[in-house]
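Re: weekly structure request thread

Next one in the queue (225 aa):
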Amino acid sequence: MQTRTTARVVGTLFVIATAAGVLSVALLGPSDHISAPHEFAKIHHQVAAGALMVLVMAAAIAMIPPILYPVLKEHNEALALGYVVARGIEAVLVLPAAIGPLLLLSMASPQPQGAPNDPERFDYVRELAQTYDTWGYSASVVFFCLSVLLLNYLLYRSRVVPRLISGWALAAVPPYLAGGLLVMFGLLTTSSAVNTLLILPLAVNEMVLALWLLVKGIKPATVRV
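Done, posted below.
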């Protein structure tokens, strides 16, 4: 695959992953708002669409590293492989965000032959979904931040994109990671304004990188690392 095509595909995947992630949050929201099976069943289509967006996001995340790998390995093969692994783990950790709501949806839907829903089982699965909101999200943040560090270190040293973009990403990792850890320890929620402010710089940076790749592509490297 030519470098120009690689840049466009990767830029598109970054946009898809971000858009799908934002839509999934808007459609699903935190699981603590769910109070009963019959209420959850009323938003069947919204939950199904939200879970689909999570799967789209996970697929886009998983596709980016293999496409970028041939470019990155020219600068440091070990770090390029580390990027592939980190994003792969992140994609796996994102999947429960779709599985939990789909399980709840299945349990909240009318049962065959008129069998009643089981509120106790529903509550148990809901608690698991709420646990993911805290631990699963934070774990995925850790591997996402690791992948950002690996990718943008290579981009910064090789200058295949402007150093302003890659340097911005490196500087934005600490607040993003801090937000994930604060959520893990119960000091913030994923939907809090503070957490949004912490993740915003890196989220915007990723879109800037995506647009650069779509418009300008990848420049020939000036430094090998």
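Residues 119-158 form the longest helix (40 residues). The mean pLDDT is 84.
Next request, please.
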